[in-house]
Each structure stands twice: as C-alpha cells, then as structure tokens.
Amino acid sequence: MSHPEIERLATGKYLSLTTFKKDGSAVSTPVWVARDGDELVVITDATSGKAKRIRNNTAVSLAPCDIRGRITGTSVDGIARLTDSTGTKAVASQVRRKYGLAFSAIGWMEKLRRRSSDSVGIRIQIPATP
What we know:
Strands 2-1-5-6-7-4-3 form a seven-stranded antiparallel β-sheet, sandwiched between helices. The chain has a single domain, classed as Roll (Pnp Oxidase, Chain A), CATH 2.30.110.10. The two termini are 15 Å apart. The chain has helices at residues 4-11, 49-56, 85-99, 101-112; strands at 14-20, 26-32, 34-36, 39-45, 59-65, 76-82, 119-125. The chain is of the alpha+beta class.
C-alpha cells in the first residue's frame, strides 16, 4: 500500500527540501519533485549544497511549498540518498515526465550559463509511522 504522504507531497509542483549542515542548522530549498513508486525523487547539481549536506546527513524534512519556498502545508521527516549515474538517469526521467518542456528548458539554460552539467538524483523515503 502506498504511503499517503508520498502521494500528498508528489502532487504539488514544488517541494521544500530541508537538509542539515554539520552543525545541525537547517537549509531549505524549493525543488521540483516527482514520485517513483513509494519514494520521492529530486534532481540537482552534483556539487550543490543540498547534495553535499545529504552526503553528510541523510535526514531531511519535506513540505509542500510555492516557487519561492513559502511552506503551504505540513512537513514530514524523510531519509534521502544520492543515486549513482544509472539511478540519476532514472530520476531525471521521472522528473522530466512530470515537468515536460519546462524541465528541458531549465537544462538548456544551465548549459548556456556554462554551469556544471553533472547532476545527481536524490531518492527520498518517508518512514512509516507506527
């Protein structure tokens, strides 16, 4: 049976992904999110702060938000993991499927800005509550 929070968080356009620094302070970022089975998936630059923080601490907090990161619903805790190159391709495919042309346009704009084209997928599980 599907986790109801996965469905709720995956249906919105934006998700506030909160990751934690080594000192425990929180950093929230609005991201595009898609669903892959019973997990949420996000794609980001491999050198981004959120990827670095997840490498050090897999605990995350998630909440629906608007494009500016303003929270629009309740938050839940999750466990994130970065994917390998094969997993990243699968995550990118899921996000591309949800966002379509907008996803492709963002990728093209990043190439024009000569930013890193190395992406990494993030897979997020929400533990079942007892």
